[in-house]
Amino acid sequence: MKIRKIEIVCFALCLLTCGCTHLTRQEEMQLQQLKGYGVTIDRPIGSFEPPASPAGAAALNILPGIGNFYLAAGNGADSSHTLYGVLNFLLWPLSVLWGVPEAAVDANTINKREMLYYYQYDPQGKVELNRAGIRLYR
Questions:
Q1: Neighbours of 72 (CB within 10 A)
Q2: CA torsion through residues 13, 105, 51, 24, sign
Q3: Which residues of the chain have pLDDT under 70?
């Protein structure tokens, strides 16, 4: 019976570590282009504000899955984090080991994706990039 619990925990750990939010290759290339112009999450052009706090998400994930629910709600939400939050809730307190760093990394990835969307699709973001002389390719 004890072996069965270990197998379940190992399976859940593998599932949760493979479930991090990722950027596509195209998004990574566009981020590199913006970085070449000096635009990063830490130094955006204009009025862009990151929607998720990596430190806040990590701190909230000390509680059972709350950091993942934070990432699944609000601006820039990634709904897949609802499932991660439920799994972290069920495996708490062990889930703190992988949930805290995972939430911080995923919040940063969500912020990067939202920054790209802001500059590509939001009219205000496009105007801000055009004023700076930066053009993202499609």
A1: 17
A2: negative
A3: 1-3, 10-19, 137-138
Name the nearest CA neighbour of 111 among 23, 26, 46: 23
What is the tens place of the pLDDT at every residue in 29-39?
A: 888 888 888 88
What residue segments make up the domains of the chain, in order of their start?
2-132
What is the rounded CA–CA span in Å between residue 69 and residue 66? 5
Q: What is the pTM (predicted TM-score) of this model?
A: 0.77
123 phi, psi to nearest 5 deg: -55, -40
| pLDDT recorded at residue 90 | 81
Cα 38 to the chain's mean position, in Å?
21
Query: Cβ distance 65 to 84 under 8 Å?
Result: yes
What per-residue confidence (pLDDT) applies to 19? 55
Smallest CA-to-CA distance from 108 within 44, 39, 57 is with 57
